[in-house]
Amino acid sequence: MRAPVLNEENKTIGRWTPPDREWLVKQYLEDQKSTNRIAEETGADRSTVCSWLQRNRIHLRTIQQAGELRRRKKNKIRKGRFFGGEDVGAAAFRYRARKTLAESGTSKVCNWCGASGGRIEVNHRDHDYRNWRLSNLQYLCCRCHRLETILWNMRLEGALEVEASGDRMVLTFVKVGKHLGELT
Q1: In the predicted model, what is the mean pLDDT of residues 69-92?
Q2: Which of 30, 53, 101, 112 can pair with 58 through a Cys bridge, CB separation 3.0 to 4.6 Å?
Q3: Same structural domain for residues 94 and 173?
Q4: Which alpha helices (DSSP H) does 56-141 contain, by range?
């Protein structure tokens, strides 16, 4: 398969040379790539990829088959089978973070309020879900996790200044200009 012929402004002036049947079979049937993914990789339009498949008598997936394929790929990511690759979903990272904390022997107690009952969630201190180092993970109850996320977003917006000293945090709400107290 050749790329299209481009002029000086990088606009297509020639036609695509269609890929051979073996390449299409490998990409679409064996690797189970979508027509959109093949179009992205080749730089062609999705409709062009569909016409290539039809010309080579490769049957297009039905909507139901495409949906089932997407669900299977999503379930594999949820079960954590795709670690180490470039195209890993957030669900796989969350699974890995929970597993890392569980294997460390850390008790499932909220690090902020000390609650042990109810729903205990894993929080990433730096809010990077790809960072599952033990030093970056902590257990929080759902209330504290929600509060922590709100405070983090306010800090990013410049509405909040946080000063930490030992076990205490001093929060200063900049836009309001009012000191609301300390959290231990």
Answers
A1: 59
A2: 53
A3: yes
A4: 63-78, 90-103
